[in-house]
Specification:
The structure is a homodimer. Chain A is of the alpha+beta class. The first copy, chain A, has 5 helices and 13 strands. In chain A, helix 1 runs antiparallel to helix 2 and helix 3 runs antiparallel to helix 4. The N and C termini of chain A lie far apart (about 35 Å). Chains A and B meet through strand 3, helix 2 and strand 5 of A and strand 3, helix 2 and strand 5 of B.
Chain lengths: ~260, ~260
């Protein structure tokens, strides 16, 4: 099994601290020793760093974690190859990326999807480069989005959630499916087993800031909450906007 | 104007020395201060590093140049934003990448293509993420490849050259068009103004090795040759295989 890390923010910020906390889980204190990857969005374009080696041994990840890449959306992953036949290779390392409608779309998955080889999930326009069930699932989702959308601004979050609702449910029936998918504005969040969220609402140099962090396991001793299982969430600008009422910001404010 | 760097090799090797030679040209001794990028292929998947900052100031590029990434195909670029309206941004930084047929395709361009906005070059399946004429040209070429090929091994070099011959000629008529395009096996090389090639034929630990290097300007005092202008070349496994008779290996052997 793997570990996911994601961020949606109102203003561009870095995830150095989260990366530092995640890094030792990739091979040192955790078993996720087969690769790591992080996608940082710069507008509509994702810049992706990935290596098919343990995160805990990666000089490149250490470099990135100290480099203060500023971004509004980040998707990260550390990988335990499972099953082992999906070996260590760049092509099998998350996050995966495709262009659709003049944007980078990025995907990372934690879980297993036996049955992804069924005909209904066969790739069409978007084809896997590597061998993983995860990348096949990503291609299946992108084929579905392409049926509805071909560009011109980011899709509205509720429409994106609508297009993805049935295909995500179909994938979820196959096995463990905890995932992050982004177009650089929307961050689609789904879990059927385990994923945690933390909302930070703060002031950065006199400017309002909201940050939503996602991680398989809480990375700090702050009040992380489990993401509701089986529900397609979409985060934007640092908080959940789909489904209506899922806002952690509202919940925190209401609770005092 | 920008500078290109490319490599095709028979066996995976690193390009550390070439990157070290290229780096100061991006802002220090050369004017190409608006970004840099390098794509290393690992099988069918490209791993791309890029930053919209001067190569000469990049800690990331220094890190990569010392990291010994092994690859059989490399495409690199340092960028001078031109015209200036195509600003500094990840989305405007080469090399660009798209998936087609389960492979990463990578493209870098040196030159200017006024007239790329004409209707005949409008993007269809592949759409630009950034603002550059270069990425539009890449999308136009990928749309043409997709008309002929949808996956299953790399395209044969002569067929790939055939599909690209007319679209490359059309782009070449617009302005300066020196470019590198790869699918991880084939490296398509075209210049209508300036590009140099160097072939190294050597023995690496008792194993045969052939390396073909491409660069806008010769990077060393070895016998670099100008690439023949206006001709679509395809390199594979460390030497030109298209057009027939373009092999630098044959030429060196015949001459030596």
């Amino acid at each position: 099994m793997c570990e996911l890390m994601g961020m949606s923010a109102f203003r561009a910020t870095d995830v150095n601290h989260s990366l530092e906390l995640l890094q030792p889980r990739g091979g040192e204190i955790g078993p996720h020793a087969d690769g790591w990857g992080v996608a940082f969005y710069d507008g509509r374009a994702a810049r992706i760093f990935k290596e098919p080696i343990p995160a805990s041994e990666s000089r490149c990840l250490s470099f990135i974690a100290s480099h203060c890449y500023q971004s509004r959306v980040v998707v990260g992953h550390i990988r335990k190859a499972n099953p082992a036949r999906f070996g260590r290779a760049t092509a099998n390392t998350h996050p995966f990326c495709r262009e659709l409608g003049g944007r980078s779309w990025v995907f990372a998955h934690n879980g297993k999807l036996p049955g992804i080889d069924q005909a209904r999930f066969h790739p069409h326009r978007f084809q896997p480069i590597g061998d993983t069930d995860s990348e096949r699932a990503f291609c299946y989702l992108m084929d579905r989005v392409a049926e509805h959308w071909s560009g011109g601004g980011a899709p509205p979050p509720d429409r994106l959630a609508g297009w993805l609702s049935e295909p995500i449910a179909a994938l979820s029936e196959l096995g463990i499916f905890n995932m992050l998918l982004s177009d650089g504005d929307n961050l689609v969040v789904f879990a059927n087993e385990r994923l945690h969220a933390l909302h930070r609402d703060c002031d950065e140099g006199g400017q309002e800031q909201h940050v939503l962090l996602l991680a398989t396991q809480p990375l700090t001793d702050e009040p992380w909450r489990p993401v509701e299982l089986g529900v397609v969430h979409v985060a934007r600008d640092g908080d959940f906007v789909v489904p209506a009422g899922a806002s952690t910001l509202t919940a925190v404010r209401a609770g005092g």
